[in-house]
Amino acid sequence: MLESEKTKSHRGRKIFLAVILAFVVGYNIVFSAPVFEGIIKGVLVKFLGGQISLKVERSSLFRGFEFKDISIKTADSVFFRADHLTVSYFLPSILIGHIGVRDLSLVRPEIHLKKRNGKWNFQEIFGASASEPEPEKPTDSRPLDRIFTFVWIKLYAKTVIQDAHFTLDIDDAGEKEFMDLDHLSIHLAFVTRTLQEIPLSLDVINIFDTLIVGIAPNQPVSFRYKGSGDVEGKVSLPFFLYREATRGAPEFTSRFHLQTNDLVMRDRGRSLVPQARIYYNMSYDAPTDRLRLHRLLVEASGDPWLDLSGGIDHITSKMPSAQVEVLQSRIELGSIDRILLFLGTNVDLRGSASLYPLKINGPLNRLNLTTKVAGQGLSLKAGGIRHQVSLFRLDLDAVLDIHRFFPLPEKKERDLAFGLFEKLVVSELLVNYNESTLRGDARILPGEGVLANLVLSGFRLTPFSAPAFDGVASGQVHLQSPESFKDLNVKTELHISQARYRMGDSRSNPLELGLVAEGLVGLHEVTTVGLPRLQFSAYNPQGVNVIQLKTAGDMTLAEAQRFDFKLQDLRVNYAELHATLPGSLRYTLAPYRSYLDGGISLNGAVGYTAAAASSLNTDLTVAMPGIHVNDLRIVSGVGLSKERTSLDTVKISALKGALQILVKGVLNNTKTGVVPDLTATLDLASKTLFGIHKNLAIQGGLHMDFKIQKEAVRGNVDAKDLSLEIYTDCDSGSACKKFRVEKMNLTLPVFHDLSLRSPAVLTDSPVGQTFDASAFRGQPNLTLQFIASSHNPRGELLKEGYFYSGTLMPGRDPGVAALLEYRKNVLYFKWLKYSLFRPKARTGNDLWVPDGDITGRDVFFNLADLAPRNMEFGGKLELQNLDLEPYLPASRSNYDGVISASLAFKGRDLGNALYNSDVRLSVYRLSREFSGFATRIIMPNQIAGFIVKSALEIPSITLELQNGLVYSTIGIARKDIRSFSSFLSFAIKPTGEEIRQERIPLAQFLERAKSEAEVGVKVEEPRP
Question: Model-level pTM?
């Protein structure tokens, strides 16, 4: 039994020794340089494309590997190469929890990226990029904040990339770019403490006992770029970071020094050497818990823009404290201009500025800041305008809290000015800009609050607002706030002299403008703005106030914003303002000047709430003395939303209650536009003659009501005994012309089709076919008692007056009567009658005698779809024993002007009505005295005179207007025209008892009528 056990033990030892021997032999074979080189190449070829070559210098599973002459090539170029790669480690150290690389060195690595024909060379090495995987469905688990190793480990590494070279070469489909970065070295080394978890946050820095990082520490980096521009040269950028925590207290040092003095940039024939320098050196002093900034220098072209030193004490405590001091500062803007000019921006920047002295010290929640910012000779040219600041100075002393902006625990929120300043003293702010000066000072002090003042003088607005507006501004602003900093009082005064504005090609005359405002801004949970006073005024060059505005208001800026303003007074002195307006505006308003010269004033209240469903409420009173309106009141309540505008009420009243307008309804917003659903009424009523303007007075009543819906306007117009008195030419120095329109009565239903797509064409067919004549009543629905004037048509004052239509005599029919209708967008007079009267000698009670009648039928005006090109007019009129002589200027011949005639007219396209109108006038009774005047207008003078002398009578005249040409035919009772018929044949064609003028342009026809009149002929008394 014992002998057997010994035999088995001996056999086991042999097997173990054999296994060990086999492992040693196999290990030496596998990890011998030639065999291992073949294995590595085979593995790389399996996963990478291209040609792979390398040499194995050393291979050890336990200690690492060394490779030489490594290269990866594509078919036509080298993608990667390196002189030497060393991976050194000690594998058995894993048994004691030490994991890392003792030496990872890569000597002279080169990476060459190329793109040709839409393909990168790395795609041949690594294969085309696979399609992006589908995004994983989100899980409810929170992201990890640390990694647990389960066992205690220590990590370490030493890595060196020495003299690296990188190129990027793109020459593909018009895209051409090349970059070369050479001689870049990177050093990294670290040793961690023994740990069981690795934090995935900034706290990871605390796991390192030693951390060393170095970038380009020994030599400059060569850089070359060709593309939109060229950059070539050497850049020094040594960076060093060291952290050590093995001695009981962490130590930290970091340095960086960037220099570009050997770098040259070229673009479009220009070159630039940036000559920039950035340097810092900082360290951490563990015993004092202080981060020291030994120096921070920013330099350009040899000028120290910023040179400072300082530190942060108690950096690991809850309340760090900072100390910073600027040692020197000089900023020459010319160096910035050279860079901008190289980039293609020419702003011509000049001058110098300085941030010296500047000191910062104190804990982060009470940080003291003292500085003097200065600049002189500053100049900038932009948009063709040169901005010059000959002097800039800012002296500032502040205490501020920046602790709240850092991710530090246990922050205490305090009421600070603008959330930052506990104290701020700006003892001086001075800016000399172009020809203006801005001065100011400010204080934020505990117990006093915020006090600030700004004074501006001589600031020309032209460079910023021309050509629309120019002027010279001066003013001051005063701000004040209590210590809580939640309420800010603002007072401002602004004056603009020589203010001029432009409309089109016209420019206004100079004005003097002034603005005075007082406001209170409340910075609470809901921000409020109060304007207890806002006053604007404008004065003309003579110093007369032409515009005066006084208002006050409140604004609430929250989720639902509210604006309430009270217009205490708005006055416009238009009589004095008119001369200052731009010429184009003066010309436009000239016809209305008599109405505006009395001025305009406005007062009332406006309220607006801005939310998902907004609202606007107004109560305004307008006075326009020029038209005798002193109490025009507009009251409205309007709801505004995305879907609709609701007119809860829009009420307009004026003329001491004589005028009332009321509108209610909804305007719906649809994809096709705004769809109305409104009701509107107008009432104008006065029992006595009421002057609503110096040129107009009314008496009687007028009522209109309309229902405006999606496709139609329905309503009624009713006038009852409506009388008007109209005054004209009151400024001519003579007696005003007075017209009296007496007792108009009207009942007119209205239907207007808003959806009209194909307007009716009435000029091509009798209008009676369009309207149902049976719908008309037999009695007129429009009557007007009479129309009278103090002057006759020639402007001559008549003691008895002149009656155009109707008479005062009792029992007489109305001067105007008509049967009309508005339907199908057409105003249609089935018939109308206009009776004329004239004064006679005072021999009895009858002071006026009939002077002719005008009767009409089928007179219409087609509004169509309200487009002038589709509008039409037409009708037929009969003139019976009508005396035209009072309506025409005095003539060289004596005539009484009594005619009887028929007139037919029609026209279309009111955009060019003259050439789209056809008119035919047939005169069948013509007084002999009037014949010469009429004939000379129609015929050439020498022919017309010969006709009148040779003819016994002209019984008829026919005129036709077609396409802007006048055709005329004169009927004659001849004596003997054979002697001169051949003479007239070139101009006229006699046919039987007629002489025909083929055509004459309308302009020539009107010119002849004008030349026939004599100017200045005065008739003292009317003829009996």
Answer: 0.64
